[in-house]
């Protein structure tokens, strides 16, 4: 994978829930790709997103902006977005910018799914 590649693989879908693994670098060149692919999922009715970021090696301010845009789009569609397995370097950036108080962050994809995924009987928790 070159420095300007980003992988987004949808690993699971269930109703409005989509779990996507993100790999590579999220920067000025790749952030629009992430945003576009995630917004496509939301437009397809997958408005409850879990982004597994364990494969992300780098994220700059453009990447943070993309995450905020995705979160806004999910919220606007009546859904939610959660980040899972956030690498330590990105976690520090989220804390320094205060985004950790806005974006839902979980240690694992399973924990994020439990928080934002559809619940039996229609009960949902918005993260």
UniProtKB/TrEMBL annotation:
<dbReference type="Pfam" id="PF01740">
    <property type="entry name" value="STAS"/>
</dbReference>
<dbReference type="InterPro" id="IPR002645">
    <property type="entry name" value="STAS_dom"/>
</dbReference>
<protein>
    <recommendedName>
        <fullName>Anti-sigma factor antagonist</fullName>
    </recommendedName>
</protein>
<feature type="domain" description="STAS">
    <location>
        <begin position="17"/>
        <end position="116"/>
    </location>
</feature>
<comment type="similarity">
    <text>Belongs to the anti-sigma-factor antagonist family.</text>
</comment>
<dbReference type="InterPro" id="IPR036513">
    <property type="entry name" value="STAS_dom_sf"/>
</dbReference>
<dbReference type="InterPro" id="IPR003658">
    <property type="entry name" value="Anti-sigma_ant"/>
</dbReference>
